[in-house]
Specification:
By secondary structure, this protein is of the alpha/beta class. The protein is 38% helix and 18% strand. The chain starts with 7 loop residues before the first strand and ends in a 5-residue tail after the last helix. Bound molecules: pyridoxal-5'-phosphate.
């Protein structure tokens, strides 16, 4: 499997043109920035490894992507979570459902701490959200595709935008690109995001530019305005973005557009659409008047 050359679409939204790098279309099962981050593991041989171990939320995109990676590599996948809501257990959906279908061994442990986990010699341990140095391999390929597209299309003044969780994708992208990378923290505030960057790179001159969102959002919480913006983009552009990060991404980008009036903007679609299944259900339940 070769992960490369996702298409770049041109869309009109907020009364202007944007380019969208469709990493959601990289592959049916292995897509988005998690596929880029884990590409290194797909492409190298690990003769002593037969199990991948990770930790995170019970609906994480990284969990699902690791379950696909494990399947492709013929590895077992052990995934630790702190808790499992009974509703989800009884009604599996989204990343949780598909990770289980891929054979994930889910371990519920309230006290699990990544820092205390001692991996065995047959285990590959992956930090929460795929915040690992090996991620730079696949993200370098993403940067290369952007550079080639820019040259072919003679694009002059370019800004690249993508919403961040751990900030791994934005950080490595900035490292491999001369054009400025803009991002917005979706988990925690900008200080937290800078701290995340510092875990992967000590030279702060190489960090992406952080734009603050309109207001403080709590990650995973439902905001009616986010659902509305997501629906509007879907309707107007025919592109389904993720419901967790992208509404914060687009609504933040909107407030800074005047600053970037003279620039072309390339928005990176980082996948996550499988996770929408659960998010969509939660939105339907909470705001029964939306259809
Ligand atoms: C994981 C993920 C992010 C965050 O990526 P980081 O590299 O952790 O910043 C953003 N969007 C989607 C759709 C994701 O799945």
């Amino acid at each position: 499997m070769k992960l490369q050359n996702s298409p770049i679409d041109t869309i009109k939204f907020f009364d202007r043109t944007f380019y969208v790098k469709r990493d959601d279309l990289l592959d049916l099962h292995f897509s988005g920035n998690k596929a880029r981050k884990f590409d290194y593991f797909l492409h190298n041989n690990f003769p002593n490894i037969d199990t991948v171990v990770s930790f995170g939320s019970n609906q994480s995109n990284a969990m699902y992507s690791l379950s696909v990676l494990a399947k492709l590599k013929n590895w077992k996948f052990k995934y630790f979570i702190n808790h499992l809501p009974s509703y989800l257990k009884e009604h599996p959906s989204g990343n949780y459902k598909y990770a289980l279908l891929n054979g994930t061994e889910l371990i519920i442990d309230e006290d699990f701490k990544m820092t205390q986990y001692e991996s065995k010699s047959n285990e590959l341990f992956i930090q929460e959200g795929g915040a690992v140095n090996e991620a730079s391999f696949g993200i370098q390929q993403l940067a290369k595709e952007i550079k080639e597209w820019k040259k072919e299309n003679n694009i002059q003044n370019l800004k690249i935008f993508l919403p961040s969780g751990t900030g791994t994708t934005a950080l490595f992208l900035q490292k491999f690109l001369d054009d400025e990378v803009l991002t917005v923290p979706c988990v925690g505030d900008s200080e937290y995001l800078r701290y995340q960057f510092s875990l992967l790179e000590s030279d702060s001159s190489l960090y992406p530019t952080i734009l603050d969102p309109l207001k403080k959002y709590h990650f995973g919480k439902l905001y009616k305005e986010h659902y509305e913006l997501w629906s509007e983009i879907k309707e107007k552009t025919n592109i389904e973005f993720d419901l967790l990060y992208d509404p914060i991404g687009w609504s933040t980008l909107k407030i800074y557009l005047d600053l970037f009036a003279k620039f072309e903007i390339l928005y990176i679609h980082q996948g996550g659409v499988i996770g929408n299944e659960t998010m969509y259900d939660r939105y339907q339940k909470k705001f029964t008047n939306i259809s």
